[in-house]
Amino acid sequence: MKIKKENKMLTGKQKQYLKGIASKFPAVVQIGKNGIEESVIESIFNALKARELIKVKINQNSVEDINNTAKFLSEKLSCELVQVIGRNCILFNQKKEKSHYELP
């Protein structure tokens, strides 16, 4: 698993655009009672690599706090935290070439 070091900030307009798209997506990865394990991080990394924009759900039986978890994941995976809403967070990591999303 190769993690990028650079992390660029999204503007409010770009975040709004990505929120609109991600609202229709189901959660790709769910974090359960075992919390954040290496396998979960690897699953999120692979999903970001393939899809660029994903939704992660933290189940109610999880001991993890959604805000802390979302920040931790965005820092660990060098991706952008677009939004935390309820028990879901939206993560974005744009490909350098052949991106699915053209940000405004």
From TrEMBL:
Domain CRM: 8-104
Keyword DNA damage: no
Keywords: RNA-binding
Entry keyword RNA-binding: yes
A GO molecular-function descriptor: RNA binding
Pfam families: CRS1_YhbY
Entry-linked InterPro entries: RNA-binding_CRM, RNA-binding_domain, RNA-binding_YhbY, YhbY-like_sf
Residue ranges of coiled coil: none
Protein name per its UniProtKB record: RNA-binding protein YhbY
Encoding gene per record: yhbY
